[in-house]
Amino acid sequence: MAELWDVYDVNRAPTGRTHVRGEPLAPGDYHLVGDVWTVNFENKVLLTQRHPSKPKGLMWECTGGAIQAGESSLCGAVRELREETGLRADPENMYLIHSIRLKDRFVDTYAVRMNFALPQVVLDEQETVQAILVDWEELLALWAAGKLCPESRFPLYRSALVSFLKQF
Asked: Which residues form the Nudix hydrolase domain (predicted)?
C-alpha cells in the first residue's frame, strides 16, 4: 500500500489534500519530516549509517523520515525512531529543537534522552546498515569530515542540540 503524506502550503497550513510518496510534489506543496537526535544517559548520541542504495548512502545521520498522513510531527518522529531503531520514546520526553522550511518540506528536529545501550538498537535493514554511539567531539569530527547528513542543516540546530545536552 502506498504511503500517504498530508500536504501543506508555504505557511504550513494543511491543504486537506494528501500526496503519494515517491511522486513529485506540485510547486508550492510541502510535506512534514521529523528528525530525532537520541542521546543516552552517558551523553552519547545515536547515529545510524544510511543503506548504500539510498541517496547519500553510507553517510551517518540521526533518525528520521517523512510524517505520514494523519500524524503530527511529534507522533511521526516517535514512530520513525521505533521503526528505524526499535527504541520507544515517550512523546513527553521529546523536545523540538529546530524547525525549518526547505524546498518541498518542513523539517522538525527533536532531541530525546533515553536509557539505552547500543545492543538494544534494532536496525531496519532497508534503511540503515550500522549504528554507533558517539560523544559530542566525535559527532563534530564526523560533520567536519563530511560524513554526517544533513550536512547543510547541522549548523542551524547545532547550538540547540548543545543546549539540550548541557541540561544533563
From this structure: 29-162
